[in-house]
Amino acid sequence: MGLNRTPRHNPVLPTKSPILSRSHSRSQTMKTTQIFGVSLSLILINLAAIMERADENLLPSVYKEVSETFNAGPSDLGYLTFVRNFVQGLSSPLAGILVINYDRPTILAMGTFCWALSTAAVGVCHDFLQVAFWRAINGFGLAIVIPALQSFIADSYKDGVRGTGFGLLSLVGNLGGIGGGVLATVMAGQQFWGIQGWRCAFILMATLSALIGFLVLLYVVDPRKRFPTTRDASESSDRDDTVYKGNASAASIWIDSWAATKAVIKVKTFQIIVLQGIIGSLPWTAMVFFTMWFELIGFDNNTSATLLSLFAIGCAMGSFIGGSIADQLSQVYPHSARTMCAQFSAFMGIPFSWFLLKVIPQSVSSFPIFSVTLFIMGLTISWNGAAANAPMFAEVVPVKHRTMIYAFDRAFEGSFSSIAAPLVGILSEKMFGYNSKSVDPIKGSSPEALALSKGLLSMMAVPFGLCCLCYTPLYYIFRRDRENARMLAVKEEEMM
Question: Which tens digits make up the pLDDT trace of 109-122?
């Protein structure tokens, strides 16, 4: 009792220190500023995702008009998609190398300017080979942007809600795809100031993309700077003293890049997801012919845009719902929930592809059943990326290697899946009798629509089934890889 000599009232000491009050006020101001910065960065990143998906959907939405302009058949149009995807796949590892040494906002802006330039160039091309060249440049820009976007989201969300974060990114991206597809499809059938509508759509989209890239460069802050760990802060400081000031040697950059590459490629979970992705991307690449297929059936531009919008809305909602469901289930089944969700989504692609392309009568009178089928199909087959692939990648490698793992995933999937589009065209023409000269520019052609649907079905139903089977080993491997990554992170922290 006698040890407590503090008086009950001390007139000398104020009840609240002005210094502490000012410090608390500064702390609150800094916290508010940080929250605003995070929100602004995520908004601009999502806007970049919107423009990226809109740009991807531009050309497929005007296949019919491009076909008429350049006298190109389905296989020629498929080669345009092949060229872009193939270059995108080969160039994707460059994003992983760049992110090791430079800020992601700078890389995102650079890639956005690149794809904006190529998109505008396509809009003024007068030769098919010119279009192919600029589509290749477009793939290079997208190769830099997409892995950086994915790792940005992975670093901005915690493990338990990462599926929802990727689902939200996919949701807004799909909304951008809807906007880009609808805009291009509606504008394609018109002329503006004597210029073909599809060309105006490309130039308009390029302008908007460049604007978003400029805003990203100015206002987006890399999560590594907002939420640095002890090790990250040390590494960031080292980078600031070397690479950002131009003092890093090319040898050290390539050594770091090679070490990151080896660390990523040897992860079994990565190998399995890439394998299923190579197969599972084939149907999605083949779907670029949906707009052309609907127009061949006899639907006009606006109706075709409506059908594709319903499918895209279903995909947007499905990716968000699938990511959220996987997050909730992973709280109960942490090692298997994401794999189960992915297998369910891949399996649903089989019956829906068959029903859409084989069962529904290919007539304009089938619009209602096409609408319902496409929406529900999109709602169920779009879970894999947000529910499983992207969140699982983030958990099986160290934080510093996340962009690299997303980059190599895009490299392998993009390179191999790019063959799907020309294969659809080749199958439709050589095996099922598609003849581009028989197509009526206004009414379409029922025989050619049927031939194209058979080519699409060949590249959708079987790959969906194989994709579902390829996920099975993850029930045993994902748990081990995630524990290895966590142990490695703990050891690195202890060494620091």
Answer: 888 888 889 888 88
